[in-house]
Design brief:
single chain; about 250 residues; mainly alpha
Length: about 250
Amino acid sequence: MELYLIIVIFIFGTLFGSFFNVVGYRLPKGLSIVHPGSFCPKCNHKLRWYELIPLFSFFIQKGKCRMCKCQISLFYPCIELLTGTLFVISYLFFNLTPEFLIAILVSSFFVIVIVSDVNYLIIPDETTFFFSFIIIILKFILFDYKVGIHSILNGMFLFAIMFLIMLLGNKIFNKESLGGGDIKLMFFVGTVLSLSNGLFAIFLSSFLALPMSIYVYVRKKNRIIPFGPFILFATIIILFGQVDFIELLSNIVS
């Protein structure tokens, strides 16, 4: 029974992943995520239902458009696979609990941000506001009003901290150090994590982004690193690992 449930959750995850591809690609360009339906970006061929089956359609068509035979980016099925995997991991960590809903929402937002930030260096405000609002509402409904209020206050505080970090970075490097989307993203992080864990997420995300930063610096590539995915990856690690930063810090000190 549990294996069956895991398979169902994975399938739903890949279906959502397919939709998140659309959201991540279209919203930054100001396009509707509903109309028109999915189509080949090269020949504008409108995809049929059997060309939209997550993972399977890509491999059955050998990674090519059925009409123009143009290569389809491997990025699409990778996002579908990642979403399905994160949904399953969310279930394995939290079972069918309120925390499971929070986990799949964070995972969903993470996937959308990967698509939009990697391709356009943009995190659409609509997605940040939407997922923040849903998390806050769930905190009020599934837990209690104190948890809901704390999530709002945490978000506001982390937003302010990230804004100050941006001002400091701009002063030091004499150029834009953080995008506005990254700053707003910290409000979402605050709705998910405690204040101390949210601060830890800032540190952890910087640590996770360090290898890529070093690579770009050494190779002297004129490239901006999308920081949003690292922020949410750090959030997922803390959330799934059920890390308590204060307890972790006290254990290190002692």
